[in-house]
From TrEMBL:
This is Aerobic respiration control sensor protein. Residues 332-451 form the Response regulatory domain. Residues 99-315 form the Histidine kinase domain. The chain crosses the membrane at residues 24-47, 53-76. The modification Phosphohistidine is found at residues 102, 534. The modification 4-aspartylphosphate is found at residue 381. The lineage of its organism: Bacteria, Pseudomonadati, Pseudomonadota, Gammaproteobacteria, Pasteurellales.
Length: 595
């Protein structure tokens, strides 16, 4: 920046000098310059000053001065015009990018929001896969656009970070959800491993950090044909954290590792034409430096690549408030849900928080219950046997506006959609949205929003997850959700749900191995097999069985190009993951009984 500053000052001085034009000062400058030049040359060549020649030189200098100044002025004027044109061009580019940023984000957010809404409507598997592709493409386009905007800011040294208090666990969950969708587009698995001493809250620029992680994850998926994408998050020191993204892809040649972060550089994909803009890693490296960290890479050809992002972030200490009951109690709640496992989890959690819960398993039952009882809150699943949660919400709002109902309580959507957009749910008649399975922290925060004081409710089980859940279980289960299930529905009820799950996978509705054999015999369609995998995914999620859920997520996507080739392997893998998960949880629950 010092060289640029000096150059700019010098150009400004030259421009001012050019404006002297035919002034007396201009004459004197040229005359003195000619005189000094003649004196120096005379001394160097003949060793003395020829006064007659000096007089001629002065006369020549005075005569030529107007011409020299004139042409010098033309040159400087042209230089100034070029400089002003360049400055205007840069300003126009910045203005254009700012305008495009506003104009493009609105329709892009609309595409993403509406595609997320459609995920909660009845769809066949092909339509659901199309929507996943739309969602991934919209998110990808948004991050590419962020890279372009940041590139311009880097060039003008205007890139700044915007820190805010961030729920680190929720942030990582969102990254995990979108990464699972991204990986499943190519039939890959995604795994996330968290260090045991991660804080709950950090001061982060969420947008920039997610932008960098997206660039790294999308590159990992792009250059990996089969296997696993892994994100490992560690706390290195008091305020330093690392994010290591590993893949089992083709690897990067050693001679290209030094160039990988160069602007516009692209690594060829096995002889194919390189894909991408070539700016993502360069921008990510700059963002890492702004976060007082770095971005490095290690790779082995044919084995895979690991990108490691390090950042500095200040942890935020909050006074924990262990809560046995919600800050809001004694609510009359109508739970509208048709999956028994989800009903058990949600109903038990709500009752533990001090609420009265009625259950409706269809839209018709929900409307009848609402009309014959007084409820403070409705929790509405979106996909029901006879109608959607949106249709229920619109029916109730229409009744309220037409005076059929005197009061309309808050309507909260329940969804397994990994990318919720609250504004879109509100446009469809909901007041808010919660993800399934219900988590204590999110549920109590939602209840306090509508019925209680604005206080922060901290899930103390989340803060101590890794003291509760052993490491071997954390390889197969989501430790955060498992800890909450055990605490709020109890070990005995969780064990009963595990027993029911075993029955369903051994000859019941969730026996994917049996259904797969029927598919091979031609007795059922691919869609029926995918539907069974979808049910298995939902049941596994309700029990926090993350590894089973991930494989079932691949199995349910019948339109994947790799599906027919890999479905047999996935069936075998989901059987093994299920067996390992059930064996581990069974032993652990047994040890808890003994102790």
């Amino acid at each position: 920046m010092n060289v640029n500053h000096f150059t700019q000052k010098y150009i400004d001085w030259v421009v001012k000098l050019g404006r002297l034009k035919f002034s007396i000062l201009g004459f004197l400058i040229v005359a003195v310059f000619a005189l000094l030049t003649h004196i120096v040359l005379s001394l160097l060549v003949v060793g003395r000053i020829d006064w007659q020649s000096l007089a001629y030189a002065i006369i020549f200098g005075l005569i030529s001065a107007p011409f020299v100044i004139y042409f010098f002025t033309l040159l400087v004027d042209r230089l100034e015009r070029s400089r002003l044109a360049l400055a205007k061009s840069i300003q126009d580019k910045s203005t254009l990018l700012a305008t495009i940023s506003h104009e493009l984000r609105t329709p892009l957010n609309g595409i993403l929001g509406l595609s997320q809404m459609l995920q909660d409507t009845p769809l066949n598997q092909q339509q659901r896969n199309y929507l996943n592709t739309i969602s991934i493409s919209a998110v990808s386009l948004g991050h590419i656009f962020n890279d372009i905007i940041d590139l311009e800011k880097i060039d003008s040294h205007n890139l700044e970070l915007c820190y805010s208090e961030t729920d680190f666990y929720s942030f990582l969950t969102n990254i995990q959800n979108i990464a699972i969708l991204l990986a499943s587009e190519k039939g890959l698995q995604f795994q996330m491993k968290l260090n045991e001493n991660l804080p709950h809250f950090l001061q982060l620029d969420q947008t920039r950090l997610s932008q960098v992680l997206w660039n790294l994850l999308s590159n990992a998926v792009k250059f990996t044909e089969n296997g696993v994408i892994m994100l490992e998050v560690k706390k290195l020191s008091n305020n330093q954290y690392s994010f290591a993204i590993s893949d089992t892809g083709q690897g990067i040649p050693s001679q290209e590792l030094e160039k990988i972060f160069t602007m516009y550089y692209q690594v060829a994909d096995s002889g194919k034409k390189s894909a991408g803009s070539g700016i993502g890693l360069a921008v990510s490296k700059n963002i890492a430096h702004l976060m007082h960290g770095d971005l490095t890479v290690a790779s082995k050809l044919g084995k895979g690549t690991t990108f490691t992002l390090t950042i500095q972030a200040e942890s935020i200490e909050k006074q924990e408030k262990p809560i046995e009951k919600s800050a809001v109690q004694n609510l009359q709640i109508l739970l509208v849900e048709d999956i028994q496992l989800n009903i058990t989890v949600a109903k038990t959690l709500l009752e533990k928080l001090g609420h009265q819960v009625d259950v409706a398993m269809s839209g018709k039952e929900a409307i009848q219950a609402f009309e014959h009882n007084s409820y403070d809150l409705l929790l509405l699943d979106i996909q029901l046997p006879d109608m959607t949660g949106f249709e229920i919400a619109r029916y109730l709002r229409d009744g309220y506006q037409n005076d059929r109902y005197d009061y309309l309580p808050p309507l909260i959507a329940l969804t397994a959609n990994v990318m919720q957009n609250k504004a879109e749910y509100q446009r469809q008649g909901m007041d808010d949205v919660l993800r399934k399975p219900l988590l204590l922290n999110e549920l109590t925060a939602c209840l306090n929003t509508y019925f209680g004081e604005n206080e922060t409710v901290v899930n103390h089980s989340k803060m101590n997850v890794n003291q509760v859940i052993p490491d071997d279980l954390a390889d197969y289960f989501n430790p955060e959700i498992l800890a909450e299930l055990l605490e709020f529905i109890g070990k005995d009820l969780y064990a009963e749900n595990i027993r029911l799950f075993k029955q369903e996978i051994n000859g019941g509705d969730l026996d994917v191995a049996k259904v797969y054999q029927e598919y091979l015999k031609g007795n059922i369609t691919k869609q029926q097999l995918a539907d069974t995998a979808h049910k298995l995914k939902g049941a596994a999620a309700s029990l926090a069985m993350q590894s089973v859920q991930n494989v079932a997520n691949l199995m349910q996507q019948g339109e994947l190009p790799e599906w027919r080739e890999n479905i047999g392997l996935w069936v075998t893998e989901v059987e093994q993951q299920t067996k390992n998960s059930l064996d581990l949880i069974g032993r652990w629950l047994g040890e808890m009984n003994v102790s």
